[in-house]
Design a protein that fits this description.
The complex is a heterodimer of chains A (237) and B (219). Chain A has helices at residues 2-15, 45-58, 64-77, 80-92, 94-102, 104-110, 144-147, 152-155, 157-162, 167-173, 210-216, 219-223; strands at 121-125, 130-135, 183-188, 194-198. With 237 residues, chain A is mainly α. Chain A has two domains: 2-75, no CATH class; 79-223, Nitrile hydratase alpha /Thiocyanate hydrolase gamma (Nitrile Hydratase, Chain A). Chain A has a two-stranded parallel ribbon with strand order 1-4. A two-stranded parallel sheet of chain A has the order 2-3. In chain A, helix 4 packs across helix 11 (210-216). The radius of gyration of chain A is 22 Å and the shape is globular. Chain B has 219 residues and is α+β, with helices and mostly antiparallel strands. Chain B starts with 27 loop residues before the first helix and ends with a strand. Chain B has a five-stranded antiparallel beta sheet with strand order 4-3-2-1-5. The chains are: A mainly alpha (237), B alpha+beta (219). The interface between A and B is large, with 97 and 110 residues.
């Protein structure tokens, strides 16, 4: 990682078209709230981002408290629990499931999870005969109102490149070996439409309530790289 | 622009690096970076398509070497300077230009959650006739613009079937260049895996892409 960071400085300058130099971190000379060493060379993106934030705050372009609120939302308010609630509701309520598959944007808004005016969402139902998998080959499009920010592997080259040409091989890397007879459909998120997989409800969960079902649903299952697992506790079920 | 960001179908990128219990941000600066990008977007000095194009302009070796958020820094700096939000001198000095007016932030803390709930709204409530119907056979056009496009190389010139009409959306190719939104229908078009990758692909598998009217022609 040290090498990567050192290289990054040069990369940033080149990529910004030589219009931008990395001297941004000089701002630290005027910032006495920081906790790092003044002698540290600006070879770390952390310093560049800190200096950029200082500049934008000084110009009045951003409010540091709004940045705090954004980070708090990303870390604590968004996340796969929202998507899991949608899935669990669809599992227990067949009418809701129908609405979800017909118009996911509206069905999700019913649960108060995303604005009805928000981005278009499409739900894809996995069955024993059909497996759906979501990817964004061009960048990192992801249903983040439902799942939060994407994990690193989703945004990285190996997944983005191979999910479309070898989805079965990719799924095997995730530990999911699909039968040859199962149809695989990959959804490349090239537009602003966002996809979420409605995974199969696992066997043995007939007696679980919606809350317990919600706890079973994983981010990976809603991207389509895993199935929802259920291991009954000993003595129960 | 044909570039390394258009990764669909490459096979040389190594194994998927899965991280169990991955945190939302690995380092504090990544969260600040994501927040800065989001907060600056509220000024509407650029749009999502221009922003994506800026990231795609990162030279390929750096694009592949950078972490996601390292590229975000390059992307945001490029947008800020190109769109005249900050000057090169301000970036170099880290200080506002002498005598420059201080503005009021476009994003206030109370507006954060509504902003996140709304997301990126690219659909447009305008009447535009669809060129294609569900069930029609179409071919993705063989286009190679040097400017921004959301038609991946692996689908160009391939035959597919219109499976769903998503409605009317902003057209990225013009929007990225600030040449207008050119709203038009976007369709989910299904391509068989064999059409895309040849006879070694499983017969029943397929890939769906969301494609705009201007990317398609009748087959």
């Amino acid at each position: 990682m040290t090498t990567t960071r050192r290289d990054f400085l040069a990369a940033a300058v080149t990529a910004a078209g030589a219009a931008v130099t990395p001297d941004l971190t000089r701002a630290q000379e005027h910032d006495h709230d920081h906790d790092h060493d003044h002698q540290v060379l600006p070879s770390d993106p952390a310093l560049r981002v800190k200096a950029l934030e200082s500049l934008l705050v000084e110009k009045g372009l951003v409010d540091a408290a709004a940045l705090d609120a954004l980070v708090d939302a990303y870390e604590h308010k968004l996340g796969p629990r929202n998507g899991a609630r949608v899935v669990a509701r669809a599992w227990v309520d067949p009418a809701y499931k129908q609405r979800l598959l017909a118009d996911a944007t509206a069905a999700i808004a019913e649960l108060g999870l995303a604005s009805h005016q928000g981005e278009r969402i499409v739900a894809l139902e996995n069955t024993p005969k059909l497996h759906n998998l979501i990817v964004c080959t061009l960048c990192s499009c992801y249903p983040w109102p439902l799942l939060g920010l994407p994990p690193r592997w989703y945004k990285s080259a190996p997944y983005r490149s191979r999910a479309v040409i070898d989805p079965r091989g990719v799924l095997r890397e995730f530990g999911l070996d699909l039968p040859q007879g199962t149809e695989v459909r990959v959804w490349d998120s090239t537009s602003e439409v966002r996809y979420i997989v409605l995974p199969e409800r696992p066997a043995g969960t007939e007696n679980l309530n919606e809350e317990k079902l919600t706890a079973l649903v994983t981010r990976d299952a809603m991207v389509g790289v895993a199935k929802v697992a259920f291991l009954p506790e000993r003595g129960s079920a | 622009m044909n570039g390394v960001f258009d990764m669909g179908g490459m096979q040389c990128m190594g194994p998927i690096m899965y991280e169990k219990g991955e945190p939302v941000f690995h380092e504090r600066w990544e969260g600040r970076m994501e927040a800065l990008y989001r907060a600056m977007g509220v000024w509407r000095k650029w749009n999502i398509d221009a922003s994506r194009h800026e990231r795609n302009l990162i030279p390929p070796a750096e694009y592949l070497r950078n972490s996601y958020y390292e590229s975000s820094v390059v992307q945001l700096l490029g947008l800020l300077v190109k769109r005249g939000v900050v000057t090169r001198a301000e970036i170099e000095s880290g200080l506002p230009a002498p005598g420059s007016a201080k503005v009021s932030p476009a994003l206030t803390p109370d507006a954060v959650m509504p902003l996140l709930a709304r997301g990126t709204v690219a659909s447009r409530d305008v009447q535009v006739a669809p060129t294609f119907k569900v069930g029609q056979h179409v071919r993705a056009r063989n286009i190679n613009p040097v400017s921004h496009t959301r038609l991946p190389r692996y689908a160009r010139a391939k035959l597919g079937i219109v499976e769903r009409d998503h409605g009317v959306f902003v057209f990225p190719d013009t929007n990225a260049q600030f040449l207008g939104e050119k709203p038009q229908h976007v369709y989910s078009v299904r391509f068989s895996a064999r059409e895309l990758w040849g006879q070694q692909a499983p017969a029943q598998d397929s890939v769906n892409l969301d494609l705009w009217d201007d990317y398609l022609e009748l087959a």
